[in-house]
Amino acid sequence: MKKILLVLLAIIVAAIIGGCIYLNTLMPIITGYAAKNLASAVFISGREPADVEALDLNFSFIKYNKNTVDYEAKTVTSRFLWAKSTAVFREGYGVTLLRGKKVDELKAEKFPLAPAEAIPERLEKADPAIIERLEPIAKAYVDDQSYGGVPFALVVLHDGKIAAERYREGLGPDTKFLSWSMSKSFTQALTGIMAGDRIVNINAPMNLPQWMNDGRKAITLNNLLRMQAGLEWNENYGNRSDVNLMLHREKDMGLYATLKPLSDEPGTKWLYSSGSINIVMRYLRAQFPTDEEFQQYMRDRLFTPLGISEYYFEPDLSGMPVGSSYLYLTARDYARFGQMYLQDGCVPIENGLLRVLPKGWVEYTTTPTEGSEGRYGSGFWINSSLRLPDVPADTFSCQGHDGQEILIIPSKNMVVVILGFTHMGGERFPIFNALLSDLVAALE
To answer: Residue 350: is its pLDDT beyond 90?
Structure first.
């Protein structure tokens, strides 16, 4: 009997120790997610902490964090059991998680560019008859939540003009919203611009030093943008996955993804990976001698032509913008981006159109990637598989995992921006399908 009790005791102790070790590996994710997202929501989006905690952070272990907002220092510290994480807001940069740096040390790093001059609003209102047909749908979606989900904003452009615009109470046209994975499409656009300027070649091996001695040396920007790099990756958001460790533990997110081993021959298997896009961003930055020159190029060649003067493309501790996840723009800014793709990579200027993306880039963007079952092109999702069954098949979109969408519908000359919060995953698509089909029907 003594031996049995000792064995049972040993098993219990081992289980407790094993559980604590596993929980300890989750701590950077649990506390880091809360600190980072609460800080960005408060200091960039201007939301109240209680609202963010009740909505955005009210799930899994995340809801058990004790969060402290310091408005003077512009930091958020989140504590769970024995662990804590601190996130710091810096003007120009946005919010970054502290990992091995002190607050003052990080704040000493100043954003390399002066604030840009404000750009006058270019979006006009659509014909009143069109607005009259679409606004009731926008109101039903945002105000009444009659379609489901928790909507933050809805903006609809038709013929490049605002046909519907609605915001959750407390939010508005000046609010900057988190992109989550919609930022992947912006990184794809930046890649296209640099390809058009002959700075990068998307079909050439990237010659990264970490890849030169194995099969990874064949990986191209095209492979990464199409999610066919062949690198080992786990994109499961609900556990201690690669994507969670990258976003909440790593100082250099692109480097972390770069060091992943090869699991498949490049170009042969489709596997969605946030790490791939952070490798792309890191590679794009490496084409410039300094952060200042890279940031200036990104501003001058992407954001300014779109009419966007203020944005936050938040960096990791290495100073690299997190191309996979952390862009903050207004709903109208996201709509402007979608309109550029609707107009074959061009934006309106006083005397016509200015080409921003190289000719043929939008066609490349919407060409289905082999292995994606008709769901993915290059940096954008596509609807050729009719994932949204009642929405035109030529629709393509930027998607964020918490319910963010920029949908471009060429056959209807329409751009729809949906911003909100939901943990429903794929279950949100029936909501968006119903909303979009009603908007399209109202136009017709």
So the answer is: no
CA–CA distance, 145 with 370 (Å, rounded to integer) = 37
What residue spans define the domains of the chain? 2-95, 128-175+330-443, 177-329
Q: Nearest 5°: phi and psi at 409?
A: -120, 85
Which fold, 128-175+330-443?
A: Beta-lactamase (3.40.710)
Q: Burial code of 280-300, b = ≥16 C-beta within 10 A, e = fewer?
A: bbbbbbeebeebeebbebbbe
Task: Give me the CATH topology for the region 177-329.
Answer: Beta-lactamase (3.40.710)
Residue 52 phi/psi, 5-degree rounding, is -65, -45
- Residues forming a β-bridge with 85: 78
Q: What is the pLDDT of residue 21?
A: 47
d(CA 243, CA 143) in angstroms, rounded, equals 34
Selected residue with higher pLDDT from 217 and 403: 217
> Given this model, what pLDDT does residue 15 score?
42
**How many other C-beta atoms can be found within 10 angstroms of the C-beta atom of residue 136?**
12
What is the distance between the alpha carbons of residues 61 and 31, in angstroms, rounded to a whole number?
A: 9
Judge whether residue 103 has pLDDT over 90. yes
| pLDDT at residue 14 is higher than 50 | no
The answer to whether the 128-175+330-443 and 177-329 domains have the same CATH topology is yes
Per-residue pLDDT tens over the stretch 53-100: 999 999 999 999 999 999 999 999 999 999 999 999 999 999 999 998
Q: How many CB atoms lie within 10 A of CB 138?
A: 22
